[in-house]
Amino acid sequence: MKKRLMLFVGLVLLCVGLVACGKTEKSGSTNRNVSELANASKYEPTLFFHGWGSSYRAEDQMAQSLVKAGLTKTIMRATVSKTGKVTLTGRFHKHDYQPIVEVNFQDNRNGNSQQWGRWAKATVIKLQQTYHIKKFNMVGHSMGNMAIMFYLLGNTKSLPKLQKQVDIAGHFNGILGMGDKPNQMMLNRAGKPNKMQTDYRSLLKLRQTYPKNQIAVLNVYGNKQDGSHSDGSVSNASSKSLRYLVATRAKSYQEQQITGPNAQHSKLHENKQVDKLLINFLRN
């Protein structure tokens, strides 16, 4: 009986030891990822955010253009679940200081802009916890821009600093057929729209809270030149209404119009002109 008791105790201690070893190994693996990056503060990842109903695949052409231009060799992915859990696939690499993170929202048909902002924040926090990043860039297409804007609307003081923001085909003040009509929205000289939709009214707080003299902004929009002054889905006025929200506080603000058939809303993230603008903006 005594031998059986000693054997049982020995097995329990062995199991506890194995579990402890497993935890140590897992923790060590995370620590190795960070320790490989001796100069963590030098790493400035660029996060790509796709549009409504889309996925990271819509970001891949732009991401590959940055690789071909020599800005980075690293493309990794951050998958965000419906509950906001972020899973990283791939990793940062030593001395590759401008890695790309393709963000993939699994609940990609969620129409709540604030929720997209919370998911964006969860992604930034995950990268901060994993790699101790100090600064980063954001690139959004369509609804991905609302993820960026509502991320910025939240409390980000304890998070890494956003350095550059690229907005492509942004519907900051509505979408055609959903509260907006071609050639109806008017902007004043400061970019203030004559009528404001609900999300835009929420974003007005950024006129006081947008980080002062910190973020360089590039706003890219498409004009099909078919008389609608739009990219087919978003009016140019809606895209350009970003100016009123951030221009007075941004480090710099610039707008670039893309014209022609490849200026259509869903084609802008495959447009070579957009690639060139993106490369030059991030490189400089």
Automatic annotation (TrEMBL):
This is Alpha/beta hydrolase. Keywords: Hydrolase. Pfam families: DUF915. It comes from Lactiplantibacillus daoliensis. Gene3D superfamilies: alpha/beta hydrolase (3.40.50.1820). One of its GO terms (molecular function) is hydrolase activity. PROSITE patterns: PROKAR_LIPOPROTEIN.
